[in-house]
Amino acid sequence: MQYTGAELFTHALKSEQVKFLFAYPGGQVIDLFDALYSVPEIRLILPRHEQGAVFAADGYARVTGQTGVCLATSGPGATNLVTGIANANADSVPLVCFVGQVPTRLLGQSAFQEVSFTEMIRPVCKAAFAVRERTALAETIREAFRTATSGRPGPAVVELPKDIQQAYGEADYPVEPAVRVEPPCISEHQLYAALERLNQAQKPLFLIGGGIRIAQASQEMTLLAEKTGVPVVSTMMGKGALPSSHPMYVGNLGVHGSYAANTAVSQCDVLFAIGTRFSDRVMGAPEGFAKNASIVQIDIEPAPQLPEKILTITADAKMALNALLRIARPLQTGAWNQQIRQWKKMHPLAATGSSLSPQHIFRALSKAFPEAIYCADVGQNQLWASQFLPLDEKCQLLTSGGLGAMGYGLPSAIGAKLGCPERTVIAIAGDGGIQMSIQELATAAVCELPIIICIFNNTCLGNVRQWQKMFYEQRYSGTCMRARVSCPPRCVTSGRYCPPYLPDFVKLAESYGATGIRVQEEWEISSALSQAKHNIYKPTVIEFCIAPDQAVLPIVPPGKALDQMVLTTGNTYSHE
Prior knowledge:
Elements: E1 3-4, H1 5-15, E2 20-23, H2 30-36, E3 43-45, H3 50-64, E4 68-72, H4 76-79, H5 82-91, E5 95-101, H6 117-121, E6 127-130, H7 137-149, E7 155-161, H8 162-166, E8 168-169, H9 188-199, E9 204-208, H10 210-214, H11 218-228, E10 232-234, E11 249-252, H12 259-267, E12 270-274, H13 280-283, E13 294-299, E14 311-314, H14 317-327, H15 334-346, H16 358-368, E15 373-376, H17 380-388, E16 396-399, H18 409-419, E17 425-430, H19 440-446, E18 452-457, H20 462-471, H21 505-511, E19 515-519, H22 525-533, E20 540-545
Parallel strand pairs: 2-3, 2-4, 4-5, 5-7, 6-7, 9-10, 9-12, 10-11, 12-13, 13-14, 15-16, 15-17, 17-18, 18-20, 19-20
Antiparallel strand pairs: 1-8
């Protein structure tokens, strides 16, 4: 019996055990939607924007460990996926993104909504496939799913022309690919060399990244830290891989790292990194990063631009940690750990500013929802979440780490809630980022998802404004969210005479069928969270009205090393 390409598409998704398809229809994918109409096993989730679809698929993949799948039409439908695909590529999230395309006979003729999408997307995805023959359809889809999950996970893109969707052919779908990509074997020689460096250290330090979580190696990492007595710092993406309440955990490092973590990195003599790629947000000025340390890096795919002094070992984090556990021994680290504890006591993390404090908000959130999935947007809200939320295997933080894409929080929370319906899911966003994806509140409402959306409204683009205050002589250009044409060119008021903020988030939430709550004082937090907890059939939006002067500290100034942290907003630097 012959099947259309669209029918084979649905058969392939069922074979890959796809439960949710985040998809927006259009002319060049209407055949796929028609085929999906008769497939109740695959739940179709209609976002209000294609970027919402890919972010939701991303959130679903991160919490379930399964491949997230999305679908968009050709042209603008496909291009609206680009940011989400690049985001998944940066953060190693397995996605398969299907896009429609004009019929093959029209390719290259500037047809309506024709874009050479596979050529456009290749620099920011793991692989891109353009199907041009019906006979290649099944194997191409299977290869995309294999690619997305092999080695370092990432997004694979499949372009499906309309005539391929309509063409008849065989319905066979391969259960397994012809060749599987296995994790690289561990070099025992390199592993013993790395362990020898660790054994000789006086001030050793583990640095863990998101690769620990991807490899599901949190338990192994915890056991290794406990066995060796070596303290642990993390990247923002790695926080929670070792419980943040664990006595061996120091804190996040990097541009907004804690004082103790950044100082420990700056003074350690061996830095043993697992599952991280040393981005600029982690290192600060590269020449000043761990300048007194011998550095070891274990990662599934080490970055090629690392300095020669770094011993790189290509390996899966879980495999490497299990190997290390077999041969590692306890080290004499008592004095070093005591020194780190003193640094933590000297300069604990604390939010600055007056009135309603982000630190108080996150303390209340973690008390009310200790085992929630938090989906943070990008900006100060994200950084406060990474600082103040206690994370472990039961309390997880999803965020756009490598790309830093605003608008991520709300749609990723939708995907996370669909993937883990029994878990509490909380979206964290600023007033700027939430407006980049606020339309997905409709998606959450029609899907009857009781997610909680916490908006930190400081009436400005707070992260950029903080930089303008500290490094650009308080030249606040383009960061006030209340500015109108009638406002003076250079605002000098403190906000008392500013025009009203737009939109009214409470009324906007209600217009989307959600519950809207505004919190202006600390004593109101508890009752707002209690109301949200009991709202089980629709989303709840809580607007926290915080002051514009709330800053994320410490901060490492541009071009400076990690040991040159600014600890108060009273310190300013000129931009170089």
